Amino acid sequence: MNENQELFIDESTIKNISDYNLIKDEITCEICQGILIKPKQCENCESIFCEKCINSWLSKNKSCPKRCDKFVMKNCPKLMKKILDKLQIICPICKNEFNYDSFVHKHYEECLEEKKMVKCPLCVDCKIKYKKLMEYNNRLKEENNKILKELEIYKNKLNELKKNNQPKLKWSKFQKFKGFSLSDEDRKINIKYAGCYVIYYLDNWFSDKIEHSFGIHVNTFGNLYDHIYVGLVNEKYNNNNNCLCCTPLNAFYIRIDDENIYYNGSSKSISTQLENKTNFSLRFNLDLRNNTLEFKDYDSDRSYGKVDILGNQFRFVVSKCNSGTVEYIILS
């Protein structure tokens, strides 16, 4: 038997040959005449065959090799397995000694794989031992995982640095108009005021040429107001004289009413994408490198649209027109 053949056990591989001679008639396959490999038995005549031998026979013949009327396969009795396991077998490949069960059901195939030659993935004509190739692949995988872990550590550190260096967004305590209250370290503003020209703003101005991204949660406590404004104004906006909806060149916003959401003064029918127009979260991506503003759903990151923006400095604002209460919370 060589390393390229199917498993076949003959007398030359048996170490305890005297024990084998006592039982060889009971453990010989009726087809290949070799020592049984994973034996199966005919239910009718109780003849025993190698599993592979009988399967090969049945693929061409419907009857039992011993000419039974009907062949019905079944597992061998446990006694046969105990008899076979008395054999001490020397592996023809590695020359190590094993009992029958370890050799047949585990070792032989593993040993064959280790000795098998396969094409080298780097060379054109060379071959390499399969075992060596697996060892190389495992080392490569370990190195790759190590690098990925290091990259993840550096990525987390970078994100932490960015987070620490970014301004902490909060609502200004010095709003021009009254009728508001702040809480949660000034990240939540609760407005109880009505007026078309009334706006409330963050402390921050956005002017550096990077991308700013933050979320806002809107809660009207179940009441749908027309003209709730959420967006940004540039440095040309004057809230003394300008209403957001009248100055689209200076304001870039979403206006929520009972019909639509408006971008920058242009009505677009996407309000149906908001499952609840009285309690929802939006993300604003202000890209000052490319002069665009994108509106997204905060939770799903689904884009509601992107508009071009004008100006060099921007301030985030919110407002409402009708009487009642609306709450805006900075999410990130």
Describe the structure.
The protein is of the alpha+beta class and 332 residues long. It folds into three domains: 104 residues, Zinc/RING finger domain, C3HC4 (zinc finger) (Herpes Virus-1), CATH 3.30.40; 33 residues; 151 residues, Jelly Rolls (Sandwich), CATH 2.60.120.920. The protein has five helices and 20 strands. A hairpin with a 2-residue loop joins strand 14 and strand 15. The longest helix has 36 residues. It is elongated. The mean pLDDT is 81.
Give the number of DSSP strands. 20
CATH topology of the largest domain: Jelly Rolls
Order of helices and strands: HEEHEHEEHEEHEEEEEEEEEEEEE
Overall average residue pLDDT = 81
Q: How would you describe this structure in keywords?
A:
6-stranded antiparallel beta sheet; alpha+beta; elongated; 332 residues; Jelly Rolls; 7-stranded antiparallel beta sheet; 3 domains; Herpes Virus-1; 20 strands
Report a brief summary of the structure.
This protein is of the alpha+beta class. The protein is 22% helix and 30% strand.
Q: Could you outline the blueprint of secondary structure elements for this entry?
A:
Blueprint: H1 17-23, E1 39-42, E2 48-50, H2 51-58, E3 73-75, H3 78-84, E4 88-90, E5 97-99, H4 100-115, E6 117-119, E7 127-129, H5 130-165, E8 180-183, E9 188-191, E10 200-206, E11 211-219, E12 228-234, E13 251-256, E14 261-263, E15 266-268, E16 279-287, E17 292-297, E18 303-308, E19 314-320, E20 326-330
Antiparallel strand pairs: 1-2, 1-3, 4-5, 6-7, 8-9, 9-20, 10-19, 11-16, 11-20, 12-13, 12-19, 13-14, 14-15, 16-17, 17-18
